[in-house]
Write a structure and sequence with these properties.
The chain is α/β, with parallel strands linked by helices. It folds into two domains: 14-167, NAD(P)-binding Rossmann-like Domain (Rossmann fold, 3-Layer(aba) Sandwich), CATH 3.40.50; 170-339, L-2-Hydroxyisocaproate Dehydrogenase, Chain A, domain 2 (Alpha-Beta Complex). It has helices at 3-9, 26-36, 57-72, 87-90, 111-132, 146-155, 170-184, 218-221, 226-230, 232-238, 240-248, 254-269, 318-342; strands spanning 16-21, 47-52, 78-84, 96-99, 138-141, 165-167, 191-192, 195-197, 205-207, 212-213, 216-217, 277-282, 296-304, 307-310. Strand 10 and strand 11 (216-217) form a beta hairpin. It is globular, with a radius of gyration of 20 Å.
Length: 344
Amino acid sequence: MHKAYYEKFIQPKKPIRVAITGVAGQIGYALLPMIANGDMFGPDQEVIIQGVDLNIDAVKENLKGIQMELEDGYYPCLKQVIFTTDPNIAFKDADYGILLGAFPRKQGMERKDLMEKNIAIFKTMGEAIERNANRDCKILVIGNPANTNCLVCSEYAPSIPKKNFSALTRLDHNRARGQIAIRANADLDDVKNVVIWGNHSSTQYPDITHGTIGGKPVADVLSADSSWLKTDFISMIQKRGAAIINARKASSALSAARAIIGHIHDWHCGTKPGEYVSMAVHTDGSDGYGVAKGIMYSFPVTCKNGSYSIVKGLKTDDFSKEKMKATEEELLEERELAFKIVGR
């Protein structure tokens, strides 16, 4: 097509600005090339990456090296890279925010100690988002405890709609699909509509009740494994992150990056017809499952035109209801502790 015609009649897409906190970490290193390659928003969408990390010499040197690698990687979708130690610069005019940075749990730390560290971080990030990001900026929180960090962050960015905040349970969703596929000796794409309910923690409920393998109910295909589905499968997904840490002496990075890509891709571009995925989103009492208001709880969702909708009307038996309630209660406890820490 003639260049003059293209410029006159076809409006080029505006680059999407993606702010990433904790960008120098392992997840960031795995995630950056995927974003730059067009995996998140599509191969015809330019991106500007605006990363922020600690103001420490070793971290800043690392970022220089990462920037050089991105420059050398020949990514046509990558319009610009901005690395900084100032969250205000990172979130300037951001369209999406990916919050990786969090204080890691160390040996001997109590849950309250970890939350005090991280709640302070996500309060600061919320304030930076409020001051600098686009009013329709969409925020995905990964740093743990992800659901409650996301809630606190949203409280300190009050002009950004609550529906624009989400915490990552797509990694758990992918883990569940993967293990079901392995158990059934099926292709991964054949496994659809598993659900992660609740918290991204060991109380989460990976639910296969509405899942299918090749269009047939998971429970029917794996009828000989009904006991496994209600016991070992659930605990495996709940503890998968800890198992990976034990195996590689570091937390999930590559799989987490893939989950982040999938989460935002579907949020931005839409889910496939007839399929739903798992996202932790803000509850307002309208979900249809009786979940308490004012927490970030993982539900099955579909996405279209940049928005998500909770899948309603799924039947839940007594076993599921008990599991869903347990993870809800943990989130309520976390909220109470977090709000006490920040004095709200």
